[in-house]
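Morning!

This is the sequence you dropped in the shared folder:
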Amino acid sequence: MEVKSIKESALGDNPVLAQMGTYDHEQLVFCNDNETGLKAIIGIHDTTLGPSLGGTRMWMYKNEMEAIRDVLRLSRGMTYKASVAGLNLGGGKAVIIGDSKKDKNENLMRRFGTFVNSLGGKYITAEDVGISTKDMEWVSKETKHVTGLPGKSGDPSPVTAFGVYNAMKACAKERWGSDSLSGKKVMVQGIGHVGEHLVKFLTEEGAKVFISDISEERLSSVSAKYKATVVALADVYDGDVDVYAPCALGATVNDDTLARLKCSIICGAANNQLADEKVHGEAVLKKGILYAPDYVVNAGGLINVSTEISGLTPAEAMKLAQGIYNTTLRIFETAKAENIPSYAAANRIAEKRIADARAKK
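The structure's back. Tokens below.
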């Protein structure tokens, strides 16, 4: 597979099939149900290595094209994430358009489950932003093609955060010669489930942690629990920190923020951190910032939910997430050897595994 740059500016009003071609997608499924108010899109990027697996996100998108662009980017990222993590899975993702606090209910989620079921196992769903394990229980009443259920792999957040933490330690090893994060200043942007677990790991190692979030309640709780310093939303990119850890929504590494960031490392749990993969992937390199590709860093969540399919134990899932440390170092080694940005090195590793699998078929 060829490494492709994705220019967000060119995608806005492009026809849907043109966008699918840009991202090299297999399938895009539109789901509508007037009775429940369900409006959802399922993106299936690549199933060479196995069935596509990826969470369902519920978000109040500005328009349908924004939702399409999001599901295309996210599902593509899942393909690469599974490939680099060594899992026999493809990449998929789903988005439900709506306010998860007001529009979500059992009937809507079960109707979504019937759409997932209609794909016959080509797409396996799980929780994501705006969706809980309880919601997945409702989905599971209509389809067996669901993972991340309570009592099984459950909440993937601890494993995801553990993977991010190990990737950050690998970054420290690459940048400073030691993987210790003790005394390092880390800005964690977004302290949801994953962000809070990351704060816990960092605090336990002795890092000085700064936090920011749209929820004042979350900030108050996490700050009190871990003695983290609260930073205003407007000041996130201006602090004198060693590591910037984006753990909320994507595209926070862009022209504006790169002009302001003073960090040495970017390593966080958010998906699609680079607003434009090629432009900003090269920009961080030129600025001397070490960037850990997001889909490598946050693969712990996928590893966790995949255990329901593979039969691995929670302990084995944590061990695999710890392996993100070595994977991250391998990417930096490839990037230096081939004189390419780290995102391109990760893409090459992911695409080679997929290409090798295709060649054997």
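Headline: Confidence is low (pLDDT under 50) at residues 1-11.

More detail when I'm at my desk.
O.
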